[in-house]
Amino acid sequence: MPKQPSAWFLTRSLPCNVGVWVVASTVLLAGIPHLSHADEVKSTDREILDFNALPPAPGLIFDVQAGEYILFDEFVRRLMDRKYILIGEKHDNPIHHHHQAQLVAALSQADQRHRAVIWEMFTRDQQESLDQNWQELPASDLGPALDWDNRGWPLWHDYAPIAQAAKDNNLPMIAGNLPEDVLRPMISDGVSALPDDLSNQLALPKVPKDILERFNVEIAENHCNMLPESMLGGFSTVQFARDASLARAMYDASEVENTQGAFLIAGAMHVRNTIAVPWHLQRFDADLDDQDIAVISLIEADDPSDTPSSISDYAMRFGAIDDIDFMWFTNDIVRGDPCTDMTIGQ
Questions:
Q1: Which residues contact 341 (CB under 8 A, 6 or more apart)?
Q2: pLDDT tens-digit profile of 74-95?
Q3: Segment holding 69, helix H or strand E
Q4: Cβ distance 324 to 269 under 8 Å?
Q5: How many Cβ atoms from other residues are within 10 Å of residue 111's Cβ?
């Protein structure tokens, strides 16, 4: 069942004092110091700052269900023994890949749970090559060996630390995405374009109406509203199938002997509880409960302002209040307007 929204969202309001935000975010990142008795007495003369009401800032980690900021060590502790760890990214932000590598390494060491690493960026038809090169090459050379530079992803240099964390902890590497040669046919032909064996594995139902409507809106916006409306349904079907493929790869990997779960490295929109990969995990893993899945989104924090966005504002950018379990805020990077030079081919 989908996770229920935290009651925290219904009661929390956030202050807009930017000066307080700057000081308090620095304290959070450095750790909260011990207060002496004298400090405690002095603090009664002024208002005690509620750290959990601070606007998000780079470096902060927010536990959405608990309604509180946590430090990295506590973050790892709360993730220990989760079967599926989904870490959503913004593809072109190298900070996100650094954090993904950091979390894969720290959690693997903390709970000694042997999880496979599932990649959106590698397609199922690359698995044989991935297996061979994974054994023979250093992590830094893996991407070039799998034609990474010609597949449209940001530099392998940015993603290589994730592969290195997997190698250091002897974790399997799994290609999770649909084969590239079925993507374009699926836009026009739907699920009938899938090979029979993959179609049987994914067992795709009809896209639920609420999911289809959300996908259609998001796909239109992500293509700068340049796609013909008649094409939206086909693109949404592909998105639905890609989420299913990633979920199936996670489930299948967790069923292999000596593997007790899976990480997912994917775009943030693939890791939402109510609509994406977790939705399909519920189909494949009959014994799954809410505590088996953790959805983590790496999110670029807004620039400071007099009217900062709240945690709930960030959550709604992903479509629903309960789509994310943990928000890990980072700096953004300089980007141009993606719609400036976008053209839609025929």
A1: none
A2: 999 999 999 999 999 999 999 9
A3: strand 68-70
A4: no
A5: 17
- Decide if 115 contacts 260 (C-beta within 8 A): yes
Query: 88, 50, 60: which is closest to 317 by C-alpha?
Result: 88
Calpha distance 324→315 (Å, rounded): 7
- What are the start-end ranges of the H helices in the chain? 8-11, 18-30, 37-43, 72-79, 94-111, 127-136, 139-145, 156-168, 180-189, 196-202, 209-222, 229-254, 277-284, 311-317
The answer to whether 121 touches 177, Cβ cutoff 8 Å, is yes
> Does the reported pTM lie above 0.90?
no
Nearest to 222 by CA among 123, 326, 344: 344
| DSSP-based three-state secondary structure for 120 | strand
Of 56, 85, 81, give the one whose Cα is nearest residue 68.
Answer: 56
Pairing of strands 61-63, 293-300: unpaired
Q: Give the DSSP H/E element, type plus range, for residue 88.
A: strand 84-89
3-state SS string over 26-64?
HHHHHCCCCCCHHHHHHHCCCCCCCHHHCCCCCCCEEEC
**Closest to 117 measured CA to CA, from 312, 315, 249, 276:** 249
Distance CA 338, CA 65 (A): 34
- The owner of tokens 């739907």 is 190
The structure tokens listed for 284 are 């494949």
pLDDT tens for 302-341 read 999 999 999 999 999 998 889 999 999 999 998 888 787 6
**The residue type at 262:** A
Q: Is residue 293 a contact partner of residue 88, using CB atoms and an 8 Å limit?
A: no
